[in-house]
Amino acid sequence: MSGKVTLYISSVVSNMEVRKQQQRIKDVLSGKKIEFDEVDVSADRENLTRMREVVGDDKALAPQIANGDSYCGNYEAFDMAVEDGALNEFLKV
After folding, report:
1. At 89, is the secondary structure helix, strand, or coil?
2. Which residues of 26-42 are buried (b: 16+ CB within 10 A; e: fewer)?
3. 5-91 classified as CATH 3.30.300.30
4. What percent of the chain clears pLDDT 70, i.e. is strictly above it?
5. The model scores a pTM over 0.70
6. Domain positions in the chain
7. Region of residue 85 (left: phi > 0; alpha: psi -120 to 50; beta: else)
8. How far apart are CA 40 and CA 9, in angstroms?
9. Within a 13 Å sphere around the CA of 2, how many CA atoms are in the beta-carbon half?
10. At what angle do helices 16-31 and 75-84 cross, to 10 degrees?
């Protein structure tokens, strides 16, 4: 897989849990020196549309993770991959 990891986030979040999830994903990726692009779905409607196309769910909410056009998963799937030591497989890197 030659794509780059993309983290879809929302900067307009009132839910503290979602804010924590987004920060944890960024912290883990940065800590493991995995390059990623951060795309704010609340900044541009096209970003939200794109994220939902990649996810394959027109009601999907951030945070979501993809590698190129390949969907990796949501926060719960990310968390499970970290716990299982399978982050690279999850991210397809």
Report:
1. helix
2. eeebeeeeeebeebebe
3. no
4. 98
5. yes
6. 5-91
7. left
8. 5
9. 0
10. 40
